[in-house]
Design goal:
The complex is a heterodimer of chains A (111) and B (115).
Chain A: E1 4-7, E2 10-14, E3 19-25, E4 32-38, E5 45-51, E6 56-59, E7 62-67, E8 72-77, E9 86-92, E10 100-101, E11 105-110
Parallel strand pairs in A: 2-11
Antiparallel strand pairs in A: 1-3, 3-8, 4-5, 4-9, 6-7, 7-8, 9-10, 9-11
Chain B: E1 5-7, E2 10-13, E3 19-24, E4 31-37, E5 43-50, E6 65-69, E7 75-79, E8 88-95, E9 105-106, E10 110-114
Parallel strand pairs in B: 2-10
Antiparallel strand pairs in B: 1-3, 3-7, 4-5, 4-8, 6-7, 8-9, 8-10
Classes of the chains: A mainly beta (111), B mainly beta (115).
């Protein structure tokens, strides 16, 4: 089955700086890659996603890039704000039956 | 409803007791998933329901775990003879018809503590 690895496990940045979280996947058939943000005590919320026919997608301060050849994708957050502090999960799926999740990155944005 | 609804939000139970966790998916969503999240860990797939098809139970960790989905809507995850290692957040998610390729939307989770 698919294996998704996520790095780093924790990330601390100064407010206004950029943050980058990286994920690799093992199954070349995977074709959909969502990112979720989980705040303390809440369920994960979708923040951005990308399909395998696209190399990059941007939504305001958040962007995701996908390299199918290398089988990795990354989340980029620019101009970070304290409210961006949360745990972020990447995921991959090739049939939408199972979503395979990374182990999570705890992002701390220092004011 | 507006989102995936789960109950109870918190449950403390004694070791050896059975527990039932309920999930009410987003109206019209045909796919329903259960995941488990242990403290500080990632999301572990448990089971997947899609319409009237046989569920994918490949993630259930033992035969103490079972789930059903009645009428293609509400789902119940049952854990029998609970153990301390069952303590975790149990997350339910739903999505629209799979063939169109849609993401999944999570509920707030049911926090289970086995003492």
């Amino acid at each position: 089955g698919e294996n998704v690895e996520q790095h780093p496990s924790t990330l601390s940045v100064q407010e206004g700086d950029s943050a980058v979280i990286k994920c690799t996947y093992s199954d070349s058939a995977s074709n959909y890659f969502p990112w979720y943000k989980q705040e303390l005590g809440k369920g994960p919320q979708l923040i951005i996603d990308i399909r395998s026919n696209v190399g990059e997608k941007k939504d305001q301060r958040i962007a995701v890039t996908l390299n199918k050849t290398a089988k990795h994708f990354s989340l980029h957050i620019t101009e970070t704000q304290p409210e961006d502090s949360a745990v972020y999960f990447c995921a991959a799926t090739y049939n939408f039956n199972k979503f395979y999740f990374g182990s999570g990155t705890k992002l701390n944005v220092k004011p | 409803g507006a989102g995936v609804s789960q109950s109870p939000s918190n449950k403390v139970t004694e070791k050896g007791k059975d527990v039932e966790l309920r999930c009410d998916p987003i109206s019209g969503h045909t796919a329903l998933y259960w995941y488990r999240q242990s403290l500080g860990q990632g999301l572990e797939f448990l089971i997947y329901f899609q319409g009237n098809s046989a569920p994918d139970k490949s993630g259930l960790p033992s035969d103490r775990f079972s789930a059903e989905r009645t009428g293609g809507s509400v789902s119940t995850l049952t854990i029998q003879r609970t153990q301390q290692e069952d303590s975790a957040v149990y997350l339910c998610a739903s999505s629209p018809d799979r063939p169109s390729g849609n993401t999944i939307y999570f509920g707030e989770g049911s926090w289970l503590t086995v003492v």
